[in-house]
Amino acid sequence: MATLWRRISLALAFAFGLATSQAPEFAQQYFQRLGGAIDELNAEIAAFDADSSGAGLSRDQGVARLRNSDDSLARGRGAQLAQDEERLARLRRQEQAMRGAAPLAKVQAVLADPDARVARGAYADFNPALPLTSDGALCAGAGFAGLLALLRLLAMPFRRPGESGEGI
């Protein structure tokens, strides 16, 4: 039984290592989509700024007018614009953290504060690639070793006295 568990553990750890080796490429594709999301939000907010300016209002005054409107559609639009401004600021901070960063730092930036819409889009279009970089190899090794260690810990209560568990 211990031999079977070792083989299963190694197979699972190998599969997890392959999966985690994709992290740098996913982060790169996320970064590309992040730029597109920022461009889109910038265009939307610039259009609103132009509309507000045409009415003799600043952006804040235009948003306040919408949010205080008796019309529920206008109130909703005002709330959405405020959320878009907050999201744009968050995306810009993340882009700044990722710009010029090493691939593993990009992975960390995505994991620290992922934008759900950008991540879903990157995942939907993601195509796994053979990781030929040292960062891909490092992620693969960390995933393999991490899962193998976790499986060893989980198996400890089921070992018989005197059984070392070596080989997993």
Write a structural description.
The chain is mainly α and 168 residues long. The chain has one domain (12-158). It is 77% helix and 0% strand. The protein contains seven helices and no strands. The protein has helices at residues 2-20, 23-54, 59-67, 72-98, 103-112, 116-125, 134-155. The longest helix has 32 residues, at 23-54. It is elongated. The model has no long low-confidence stretch (mean pLDDT 87).
Percent strand: under 5%
User: Mean pLDDT, nearest integer?
Assistant: 87
Regions with pLDDT < 50 over 5+ consecutive residues? none
Radius of gyration: 24 Å
Order of helices and strands: HHHHHHH
Backbone shape? elongated
DSSP helix count?
Answer: 7
Number of separate structural domains: 1
What is the chains' assembly state?
single chain
Count of DSSP E strands?
A: 0
Please state the structural category.
Answer: mainly alpha
> Terminal Cα separation, in Å?
13 Å
Largest sheet: none
Q: Roughly what percent helix? A: over 70%
